Amino acid sequence: MSVKIGITTGLEGERKITLSQDNVDAVVQAGGLPFLLPNLWDASCIPEMARELDGLLLTGGGDIDPTLFGEEPHPKLGTITPRRDFFEYHLIRLFLEQNKPVLAICRGCQILNVAAGGDMYQDIGAQHNQKILQHTQLAPRAHASHYVQIEQNSLLFSIIGKERIKVNSFHHQAIRRPAQGFEVSGWASDGVIEAFESKCHRFILGIQWHPECMAVQGDQDALKLFRAFVHAARQA
Q1: Which of 17, 18, 75, 124 is the most buried (most CB within 10 A)?
Q2: Cα–Cα dist 167/208, whole Å
Q3: Active site residue: 194, 201, 212, 213, which one?
Q4: Among candidate residues 2, 99, 29, 20, the one with its CA nearest the CA of residue 60
Q5: Whole-prediction pTM value?
């Protein structure tokens, strides 16, 4: 039976759906059947969408509306897409309720945490307490530019099988306080949270880097993430 994976999409000018092909290819490579999800204002359609899907891939993109976690916009906040925030927020909460697998990438990691009740840095360069690494790399997207330390006894460690991996990086926002029931499972050397996961669900994993770009280039650690996600969705 096909494993139906919903993949969230971006919006260009509120009218044009956008998505990197790497997200689709990585899901297919891992054995999943991809379904691209439009960003809906009509919340009544979202429950049926959640019921039909076996797993949810939350993809990268622009910034998140800080009023969703009780803050005013910081001067360094970038472009937000309210329609996407609305749709993903409601869809995530349904997936959490139904205990269905979620793999959340970069922006997806952040909106997952916000929807679950956590918060985030609107700009790590301005708000993080430590001197930070270059988290928006000036290198090809598949190039791994910095290291992540992985916590043992975590879902992420069980998938990757390593305590330290090298990842790519394209973000200026990040998780600050994980939602209740979630734990940090990966850190950059500057203290920025790079991965977190639910301790209350079968497979809810957020990662700050972009494994889809690396998976399509044959990176084995990135491929393990997508294969583990699709496998979990197959069991849903």
Answers
A1: 124
A2: 9
A3: 212
A4: 20
A5: 0.97
Q: What is the dihedral of CA 23, 24, 26, 27, to 10 degrees?
A: 120
Longest dimension (CA), the chain: 49
At 109 the pLDDT is 98
106 has catalytic annotation? yes
Mean pLDDT across 25-35: 98
CA 63 vs CA 71, 154, 190, 209: distances in Å: 14, 28, 21, 15
- Residue 1 scores a pLDDT above 70: no
Q: Is 210 a catalytic residue?
A: yes
Among the options 106, 146, 197, 213, which is catalytic? 106
Q: How many CA atoms lie within 13 A of 177 on its CB side?
A: 6
